[in-house]
Design goal:
This protein has about 300 residues and is α/β, with parallel strands linked by helices. Helices cover about 45% and strands about 10% of the residues. It starts with a strand and ends with a helix.
Length: about 300
């Protein structure tokens, strides 16, 4: 995982430390755009300027790993492994790929892509240092120097081992458990998020003091609550959320009828920003309990917004 570039425009850092909300999304389109909007309109939404929203996005080569169980496993690894405490060979290589494809903005193609880079560096690590993927790298500088030479000779990629080491240190997720919050925002999609996986994710969140926010059946239900008369929705049909066209499920169809132009990768936040208090209020008529959201229609995203407002 990588810390995304800051939402909005960077402002002067206040003397008082900011409270960080690290946001981890299952879907990195609609949810990202929604919270980008929340960040943009913080003052209008009565959210303190001392709250800093920091989205955590999936690393290069892991973009398709959207299952909540996979996400929580990646998150735990990224929050517990550091250069100082010990970083695995696998995570070190993952961070290198992030640097190449997101910082240097090298374009992926049939020859240079995250998989070929990862496989090549992993094989080099095994031959040169005897590393397996979970081996802890004790001397990062020596390994990065070897990687630098390999990438230059194999792919003509010029980079500095020192700059990569600095990038890795800067990308480490540092937070105060008593002050900051790590928030995982996922859908309760019964087809891809199985019952035992739900229990696993909930237990891991409790163990690591992460905050879990679930929408059952999906984030679109939370968006539907921004419009009046949510109590008149067909609750069973919404919960089942069957496909009603070749491209849309029921919640997407209903939302597109209310929020004109809505698509999963296109959310006009300005159209709903003044309706958030209504959504928070209407959410209370549905399930908000994280254990019961496993099977019941509802969402607790409104609780997250409420915490930001306090």
């Amino acid at each position: 995982m990588r810390i995304a570039k800051e939402f909005g425009v960077r402002t002067i850092t206040p003397k008082e430390p900011k409270r960080k909300f690290f946001l981890v999304f299952e879907g990195e389109k609609t949810e990202y755009q929604y919270f980008e909007g929340v960040n943009t309109y913080k003052s209008e939404l009565n959210i303190s300027g001392l709250i800093e929203l920091k989205p955590l996005l999936r690393s290069a080569g892991h973009e398709s790993a959207s299952n909540p169980k996979s996400i929580i496993q990646q998150l735990i690894k990224h929050m517990t492994e550091t250069i100082k405490s010990g970083i695995s060979c696998e995570l070190l290589i993952e961070r290198i790929c992030d640097y190449l494809f997101y910082e240097l903005e090298i374009s992926e193609n049939s020859i240079i892509n995250s998989k070929t880079i990862t496989d090549g560096l992993m094989e080099l690590s095994k031959i040169k240092f005897g590393f397996l993927s979970d081996s802890i790298v004790s001397d990062v500088k020596v390994v990065l120097d070897e990687f630098e030479e390999y990438l230059r000779e194999k792919y003509n990629i010029e980079h500095s081992a020192e700059l990569i080491e600095e990038y890795i240190k800067n990308s480490e997720i540092v937070f105060d458990r008593s002050y900051d919050k790590v928030c995982i925002i996922v859908d309760r999609d019964k087809q891809s998020f199985k019952s035992d996986q739900y229990d696993y994710v909930r237990e891991q969140c409790q163990k690591h003091q992460f905050n879990l926010y679930v929408s059952n059946p999906c984030f679109e239900f939370w968006l539907l609550l921004h419009y009046p008369d949510a109590d008149k929705l067909d609750k069973q049909a919404i919960l089942e959320n069957r496909r009603v066209t070749s491209k849309k499920k029921l919640t997407e169809k209903l939302l597109s009828e209310k929020l004109i132009g809505y698509k999963k990768n296109l959310l006009n936040f300005e159209c709903i920003k003044d309706k958030i208090d209504l959504a928070i209020e209407q959410e209370k008529s549905f399930c908000e309990d994280i254990e019961e959201l496993k099977t019941e229609l509802g969402t607790n995203v409104g609780l997250l917004i409420t915490i930001m407002k306090t």
